[in-house]
Amino acid sequence: MARMVAERSDAIASLAEVFREHGYEGASLALIGKATGLGKGSLYHFFPKGKEEMVRAVLAEIDQWFEDSVYSPLREGTDANAAVTSMLDETTKYFRSGRRVCLVGALAVANTRDLFAQAIRGYFIAWVDALQSALVRQGRDVEQARLLSEDAVLAIQGAIVLSRALDDPAVFERAIGQLHKRLGVEANGIVVPATARPEGSITPFR
Amino acid sequence: MARMVAERSDAIASLAEVFREHGYEGASLALIGKATGLGKGSLYHFFPKGKEEMVRAVLAEIDQWFEDSVYSPLREGTDANAAVTSMLDETTKYFRSGRRVCLVGALAVANTRDLFAQAIRGYFIAWVDALQSALVRQGRDVEQARLLSEDAVLAIQGAIVLSRALDDPAVFERAIGQLHKRLGVEANGIVVPATARPEGSITPFR
DNA sequence: CGCATAGTGTACCAATCAGTAAAGTATTTA
DNA sequence: TAAATACTTTACTGATTGGTACACTATGCG
To answer: Whole-angstrom Cα distance, residue A81 to residue A58?
Structure first.
């Protein structure tokens, strides 16, 4: 196996960044070449089917990262509550408090949705399912856990949109703060009923 | 003033649709021409600065629609609680339960963000501010109203992303359902001060 | 060494891109 | 009706698009 300078896998991080920043249509081969430092020849050597294959490779890597860093701990962590907290922290780091776009979310909104529909769907289903599993292990009702996890994943996506729109990472961080409250064990209605929660405990910020 | 067949304003609805479906970069002049039924000559006659001006016109119209149908009732409605409910219903209709993308949200995530930063920011700030105003008139604490309204707007954006990703409008509708609960007066155990209470409009405490 | 394979650089392609120019047609206004 | 204005059509840019072809170099292996 001949190894010159680059490996296929080395390019994927750069590819991810360029697709995040410019979208599928906006990321031209010129831009991609600049971002990866690879010429067209190399790019088509590594990804014979062009941009589509590049995006698929990026999606696969993203999926792997989330599987290892988020879904798996959520599903299998012994301390479900700690796993939830860890998810929120990892997510904040990963999306850089909303400064970094979620490629999967961006693709879901673009008209390229159909091309990657399966991968997009898989990403979000895995996330919601894993989170639900942790919430159930916290002692919650299955139905409520479903609703809550769907709501949490959706809030993270929305937080990215809004914090970018307002150009304010604090928006993202406040949203994560809300989720910490909503997903924590003390909010599951067993320890402290939501209706009995003192007003001051809702706003820990600023 | 010579009027042939089309007016500038007639094109805007089609323009909005084509930008929603294909994004700023993805909406080529060929596509735009097909969607509006206008040739390049006419398009550049109405929008001398090209795509950028078209998007600005669309954003202005969107802003106007939200101002009239959402923000203004939220700010000035006598029944704050009814205004909130109406906002959620109008929003569901407008975004067609997540089947229709929010152009402003999509632009906020794309790399074209900087071009339209001011309009994007204005749209979301107006929304959050108007909602906060209604929540305060419901009798809520200003700080909590701020958090809640930010959270609600962000949830709507996230609901669009997730429901599209899962290709399931029910996801959007569930999210709106959650918001109905969170934003209703009966939630959070708030006690509406007599001064802020519109006569006879309070839903009895659950 | 020498050959196969892996990876690269460059020139090229047809198609499409946003945008321009200008001649032509409709419509209003005077 | 005639001139002015509003709009449309068509043809045309030069640049860029994604993608191909192929000669080229580097590297690993026997």
So the answer is: 30
The CA–CA distances, whole Å, from B55 to A22, B20, B50, B118 equal 18, 10, 9, 13
Return the H-helix or E-strand segment holding B30.
Answer: helix B29-36
Report the gap between the CA of B176 and the closest CA in chain A (Å). 10
Among all protein residues, pick the one whose CA is nearest to the C1' atom of D22. Answer: A41
The matching CATH number, chosen from 1.10.357.10, 2.120.10.30, 3.30.1380.10, 1.25.40.10, for B59-196 is 1.10.357.10
Q: Do residues B110 and B123 make contact, with C-beta atoms less than 8 angstroms apart?
A: no
Q: Which helix (H) or strand (E) holds B150?
A: helix B142-165
Instruction: Kindly report the backbone phi and psi dihedral angles of residue B157, in degrees, each rounded to the nearest multiple of 5, phi listed first.
Output: -60, -45
- Cβ pair B121:A165 closer than 8 A: yes
Quick check: B91 and B5 in contact, CB under 8 A?
no
What confidence tens digit (pLDDT) does each residue in A84-124 have? 999 999 999 999 999 999 999 999 999 888 999 999 999 99
Residues A160, B109: C-beta atoms closer than 8 Å: yes
The chain B residue lying nearest A120, using CA atoms, is B165
Closest chain B residue to A106, measured at CA: B109
Kindly list the residues from chain A whose CB atom is less than 8 angstroms away from the CB atom of residue B110: 23, 26, 106
Answer yes or no: is pLDDT of B3 > 50: no
CATH architecture of A59-202: Orthogonal Bundle (1.10)
Nearest of A183, A177, A79, A182 to residue A131 by alpha carbon = A183
ipTM metric: 0.89
What is the C-alpha to C-alpha distance for residues B151 and B145, in angstroms, rounded to an integer?
10
Cα–Cα distance measured from residue B37 to residue B43, given in angstroms and rounded to the nearest whole number: 10
